[in-house]
Write a structure and sequence with these properties.
It contains nine helices and five strands, in the order H-E-E-H-E-H-H-H-H-H-E-E-H-H. The chain has one domain: Glutaredoxin. It has helices spanning 2-24, 59-73, 90-104, 108-121, 129-142, 147-154, 157-172, 191-194, 197-213; strands at 33-35, 48-54, 79-85, 180-183, 187-190. A hairpin with a 3-residue loop joins strand 4 and strand 5 (187-190). The protein is of the alpha+beta class and 218 residues long. The protein has a five-stranded mixed beta sheet with strand order 1-5-4-2-3, with helices on both faces.
């Protein structure tokens, strides 16, 4: 009986040690992240570019936002964060247009997280097409956005251009779901691959370190 108990305890010990060792392993290519081939150009100058692909109506993106925001604030000085709305179809493009219109009038930082919350907790997520666009516009008006500037930006050529670029990036970065975070045009981590949102951010931290150790040769 004592031997059986000892064997059981030892088995549990080795399982626990094995699990800890597994957690301590560095992220693995093809399991925790993808390597882009060919690498994509970046526009962050000498900094490591960190790009979140998102969709306002995605529940997983909404779930990521509370942990993403403080994580971004702690990024190293040699890293630069930006958001890109993933675009797979015309419905996703509506959210991209909203984002870029807000960016054009300097309102993204003020309302981005609040808009996410309103969409998912205020009923917007259930709407589509023009009904959704109208609902967002009404919320923006209530939250102090200059709607004359917003409407002009929403229909502007510059926003059209950014939408086309976002659609191209969604394809070039091989994004098949959101949220996804690309590091310096070379790797992409997703919550689906990593298992959950905090793991995805840990993988992204690892990839930032890899970008620092392995700079692109010019």
């Amino acid at each position: 009986m004592l031997n059986r108990l000892l064997i059981a305890v030892l088995a549990m010990f080795f399982v626990a040690v094995g699990a800890q060792a597994q957690q301590g392993k560095p992220p693995q290519e093809g399991i925790d992240f993808l390597t882009l081939n060919p690498p994509q150009p970046t526009d962050s100058g000498g900094k490591i570019e960190v790009t979140e692909f998102f969709w306002y109506r995605c529940p997983h993106c909404f779930s990521l936002e509370p942990v993403l925001e403080p994580w971004v604030k702690k990024l190293p000085r040699d890293a630069q964060f930006k958001r890109v709305p993933a675009i797979f179809n015309n419905e996703w493009a509506l959210d991209g247009r909203i984002f870029y219109a807000l960016e054009a009038i300097g309102e993204v930082e003020r309302v981005h997280s609040k808009l996410f919350d309103a969409i998912h907790n205020g009923g917007g997520v259930r709407l589509k097409g023009e009904a959704y666009v109208k609902w967002v516009a009404e919320w923006l008006l209530k939250n102090g956005v200059d709607m004359a500037k917003y409407d002009a930006a929403f229909r502007s050529f510059s926003v059209d251009t950014k939408l086309k670029r976002a659609a191209q990036m969604t394809q070039a970065y091989k994004i098949d779901g959101v949220p996804a975070i690309a590091v310096h045009g070379r790797w992409v981590a997703t919550a689906t691959m990593s298992g959950e949102r905090n793991a995805m951010l840990r993988v992204t931290d690892f990839l930032i370190g890899e970008a620092r150790k392995r700079p692109v040769k010019k």
